[in-house]
# Entry
Amino acid sequence: MSRHVFLTGPPGIGKTTLIQKVTQALKSSDVPVDGFYTEEVKEGGRRRGFDVVTLSGKRGPLSRVSSDSSTSRRECRVGQYVVDVASFEQLVLPVLRNVNQGSDAEKKICVIDEIGKMELFSQAFIQAVRQMLAGSGTVVLGTIPIPKGKPLDLVEEIRSRRDVEVFTVSKENRNNILQDILAAVESCRQ
# Structure
């Protein structure tokens, strides 16, 4: 039996867009849903980094393009981006801990977009996600990257869990996969 639903696929394929559509559909059926998604920050047409946006409307930086090449040891970097772990945790951890108060009778949906390299710099985030996947009061609707390079422990753990249904989003299916994802989330809530 699936208890959680994850989307995977290459960057820019439309995972976040699908997550937002599913979230809107759930909200309009009065399903309790919370969580966060990641949004590109563009400036003059160039990508400057990513923001975390919670479903309650709070926003803060996740990462920014590093302006200088000298990096301090403490910096968490993914390619050209420096990850602001403190900002990420400040926004996301209260949301995840709050959602955990769901019950079996009224399962909450928690959107986690995404569980990727940048987010995994936060040990507290990893712990919170593991707790949520193990608990029974919350259905996680999340996104994970497709395997590339060195495997990410938590991502592989999720991919291989028996209680997780994974949808692979592609150009071919992204416009007609919405109902399937919604149906999967609904069956996880039963």
